[in-house]
Amino acid sequence: MNNRHHIILLVVGALLSACAQAERDYHAEALQIHEEVFTIDTHIDTPMLLVNEGWNIAEEHSPENDEKSCVDLPRMRKGGLDAAFFAVFVGQQERIQENYVLAQEEASLMIKAINTMCDTNPSTIRLATAPEQAFINERNKYLTAFIGIENGFPVAKDISNIKKYYDMGTRYITLCHTRNNDICDSSNDNPEHNGLSEFGKDVVKEMNALGMIIDVSHISDKSFFDVIGMSTVPVIASHSSARAVCDNPRNMTDEMLLKLKENGGVIQMCILSAYVKTPPENKQREDEYAALEKKYGPWAEIKDRETRDKYSSEWYAIGAKYPEDLATVNDFVDHIDHVVNLIGIDYVGIGTDFDGGGGLRDCRDVSELPNITAELLRRGYSKDDLEKIWGGNFMRVFRQVIEKAE
Questions:
Q1: CA 109, CA 107: separation in Å to the nearest integer?
Q2: Are 269 and 350 contacting, i.e. CB atoms less than 8 angstroms apart?
Q3: Which residue has the higher pLDDT, 136 or 294?
Q4: What is the CATH number of domain 38-279+325-405?
């Protein structure tokens, strides 16, 4: 080998080494940032697991061996996540009195399970109902659990139920889910109320008065604009993404994002793969899912726990048989870039939807959240930017909602 070739090899080797070092540094820097800034995920569906006998959130689970769990307390520590809104999800059913009662019982059961989690693990996680409590918990090395309700169905047609859930510790309500309810139209259903119903307008006023955050994820475009026109305080989308990047009705259009900025609210970006990147067709999987629903009926209408467990087990088995081609962290950060470029760094955060379908190829559970931070660093986001994305923007809105009510 002549001297020139030797020098070229040394230079190439040095460049490769530098690249590898840069990769390692991004991840190390991400871990350090998670140690130093307050971080919150505004939407995890883990309460559905908390009510299952034998499942312990204080134990570490593996995404390889336990697909049904993306979040537990040890993995929250590993992922540098300080706080989360534990979403009390209640599926939409026919709007009759019997189902209102069942929905309220289910919501109460999950709220009780969140409280039990905190009571059972007092040295690890504490319940909070206001921003300052979470900051105190962080300083004292405790994790924080907030409570949100996903779907206003348990409110039924009784406005006093909002105060009831507020007194139980709930600090946001996602107004609806995948079907219309008494409050508003859903993004995944045919118009019924043409946006907010008359009762829904009362709900917005009551939530503003109490200091409860309004969550516009899942609601129709018209419902969103109705809420923005009525709310006297900023609102949130606890787990949504950008429709300009992934054309899904669950995502927010640029027009909606611009209105959200006018309102002073925040979009908490969701990592559910189908909201991040349009999935390729997987007909066999969809056919088997359809057969499963035909066998047991719609998930939201299954009332007994044993049947739900069977349905869930078979659902995950189908998913394992026909694995989804998941979007990546890189795809997800494209959504953050789009929102930041459109409305600015002050109106974006993260709400993963873990344990409710959220997860990326390279961010499968809460322990891998620093992978998102590393990619943001790679794209030039500063520590101050990351502090806003990981909690600062959302906590600003949270404070404003409380202060206006006071």
A1: 5
A2: yes
A3: 136
A4: 3.20.20.140
Q: Dihedral sign, CA of 130, 227, 205, 186?
A: negative
Query: Across all residues in the chain, what is the average pLDDT?
Result: 92
The tens digit of pLDDT for each residue in 351-386 reads: 999 999 999 999 999 999 999 999 999 999 999 999
List the structure tokens of 317. 């088995």
256: left (phi over 0), alpha (psi -120 to 50) or beta: alpha
Ramachandran region of residue 380, left (φ > 0), alpha (ψ -120 to 50) or beta? Answer: left
Q: How many CB atoms lie within 10 A of CB 215?
A: 31
Overall average pLDDT of the 154-182 stretch = 98
pLDDT digits (tens, 9 = 90+) for 88-102: 999 999 999 999 999
Pairing of strands 83-89, 143-150: parallel
Q: Are 268 and 298 in contact (CB under 8 A)?
A: no
> Taking residues 339-345, what's their average pLDDT?
98
**Separation between Cα atoms, residue 326 and residue 272, nearest integer Å:** 9
Band the pLDDT of 24: cuts 50, 70, 90.
low
Q: Residues, the chain, total? A: 406
Cα 73 to chain centroid, rounded: 17
Domain regions of the chain by residue span: 38-279+325-405, 282-323
Q: Is 108 left (phi over 0), alpha (psi -120 to 50) or beta?
A: alpha
Residue in the structure block whose two tokens are 């559910």: 272
Angle at which helices 283-296 and 305-321 pack, to 10 degrees? Answer: 170
The DSSP-derived string for 121-179 is: -TTTEEE-SSHHHHHHHHHTT-EEEEEEEESSGGGTT-THHHHHHHHTTEEEEE---SS
C-alpha–C-alpha distance, residues 153 and 161, integer Å? 11
CA 233, CA 253: separation in Å to the nearest integer? Answer: 21
Residue partners of 350: CB distance under 8 A and separation at least 6: 41, 42, 268, 269, 271, 372, 389, 390
The dihedral built from the CA positions of residue 254, 256, 262 and 263, taken in this order, carries a sign that is negative
- 30-33 — which CB contacts under 8 Å span 24+ positions? 30/370, 30/371, 30/373, 30/374, 30/377, 31/80, 31/370, 33/80, 33/373, 33/377, 33/383, 33/386, 33/390
